[in-house]
């Protein structure tokens, strides 16, 4: 079986859920081979987690510089491994950083690039959400090694324990004139809440929430559900919630099991970031709001009446 390279997303030695999803998708095409890029020693911390989801090989591209150089070492590592392994495909998470890596890698390999895949088939073709989510198409790269950016949450992560062999990869020395070096790092997450793109449940608020203070109605429901909080661009632009929580075309793309939209009209640019969610619930006082066109369950009503009741009911059942 040909290898299928998976770029590992990890933070401080912890593998992100999306990597387990990518390894599961890679198994459909060939033998999953994980590519770990990070500071010395990181591969040892993540190897077991990768093998549990089927990685038969773990390429370790470690260097003291790797964490400080943004995307370049990841592209270098994938290019180096692709040159020797002749993989059937390269899978990368369709996060902001992942898309940057995928684009650069495809150029270097002279390959076709498939963005925003929501499903991956055994022959390397994908189901893709394109033009801001306006169309879902089947696509296949006909040039080089396909570079596929898969949306977090789109593919189910399934355990398939394997024995992983570790292979060291030498990273080329960074050219100081060409790279961006990170000099400080601040992790912006919503307290104890799960990371937005990794969360199984997302509760998002829109302009209908009305103010930053009133966003606590959104947060309270999120907290009883163990969910991440998201926001529409109108809510972000109005200063109700920070930008890193924006969902949509110019924000983050999420595909949770459950997406609850509160006071969000459902503009195409918002839908682009959430319409592949498995189940969508919308609360909106306007029965004509476009969000109801894609919602599995809709409540026409004032969110300040509906949501506290829902929060109370969930709390009672915990
Ligand atoms: P509105 O459209 O104003 O809707 C508010 C909704 O709340 C209404 O449907 C109203 O009926 C309802 N409501 C009001 N009060 C209540 C209440 N008390 N109870 C229940 N319901 C209530 N948008 C994004 O979200 N993400 C993006 O990434 C994004 N990128 C964009 C990129 C471009 C290039 C452009 C042009 C636009 C982009 N937008 C994006 C903006 C998008 O077009 C919409 O303007 C935005 O999504 C609207 O946000 P909203 O639904 O919160 O606000």
Tell me about this structure.
- This protein is α/β, with parallel strands linked by helices and 318 residues long.
- It folds into two domains: 1-166, Rossmann fold, CATH 3.40.50.620; 199-316, Rossmann fold.
- It contains nine helices and 16 strands.
- The strands form three sheets. The protein has a nine-stranded mixed β-sheet, with helices on both faces.
- Helix 5 links the parallel strand 12 and strand 13.
- Helix 5 runs parallel beside helix 9.
- The longest helix has 15 residues, at 303-317.
- Flavin-adenine dinucleotide is lined by residues 206-208, 232-235, 246-251, 263-265, 267, 269-270, 273, 283-286, 289, 302-304.
* Number of spatially distinct domains: 2
What is the CA-CA span between the terminal residues?
46 Å
Name the structural class. alpha/beta
What share of the residues does DSSP label as strand, in percent? 15-25%
Order of helices and strands: EEEHEHEHEHEEEEEEHEHEHEHEH
The CATH class designation of the largest domain is Alpha Beta
**What ions, cofactors and ligands are bound?**
flavin-adenine dinucleotide
User: What is the helical fraction, as a range of percent?
Assistant: 25-40%
Low-confidence stretches: none
Please name the CATH architecture of the largest domain. 3-Layer(aba) Sandwich
């Amino acid at each position: 079986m040909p290898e299928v390279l998976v770029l590992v997303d990890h933070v401080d030695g912890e593998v992100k859920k999306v990597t387990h999803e990518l390894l599961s998708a890679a198994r459909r095409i060939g033998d999953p081979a994980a590519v770990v890029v990070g500071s010395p020693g990181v591969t040892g911390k993540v190897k077991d987690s990768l093998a549990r989801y089927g990685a038969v090989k773990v390429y370790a591209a470690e260097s003291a510089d790797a964490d400080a150089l943004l995307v370049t070492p990841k592209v270098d590592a994938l290019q180096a491994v692709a040159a020797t392994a002749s993989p059937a495909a390269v899978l990368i998470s369709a996060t902001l950083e992942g898309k940057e890596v995928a684009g650069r890698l495809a150029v270097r390999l002279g390959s076709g690039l498939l963005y925003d895949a929501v499903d991956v088939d055994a022959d390397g073709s994908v189901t893709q959400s394109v033009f801001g989510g306006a169309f879902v198409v089947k696509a296949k790269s006909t040039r080089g090694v396909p570079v596929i950016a898969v949306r977090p949450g789109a593919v189910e992560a399934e355990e398939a324990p394997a024995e992983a062999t570790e292979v060291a990869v030498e990273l080329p020395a960074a050219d100081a004139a060409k790279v961006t070096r990170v000099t400080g790092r601040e992790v912006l997450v919503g307290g104890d809440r799960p990371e937005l793109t990794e969360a199984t449940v997302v509760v998002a608020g829109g302009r209908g929430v009305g103010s930053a203070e009133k966003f606590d109605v959104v947060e309270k429901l999120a907290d009883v559900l163990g969910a991440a909080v998201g926001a529409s661009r109108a809510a972000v632009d109005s200063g109700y919630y920070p930008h890193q929580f924006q969902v949509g075309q110019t924000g983050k793309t999420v595909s949770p099991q459950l997406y609850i939209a509160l006071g969000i009209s459902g503009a195409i640019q918002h839908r682009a970031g959430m319409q592949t969610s498995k189940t969508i619930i919308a609360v909106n006082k306007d029965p004509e709001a476009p969000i109801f066109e894609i919602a599995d369950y809709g409540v026409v009503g004032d969110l300040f009446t509906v949501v506290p009741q829902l929060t109370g009911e969930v709390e009672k059942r915990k």
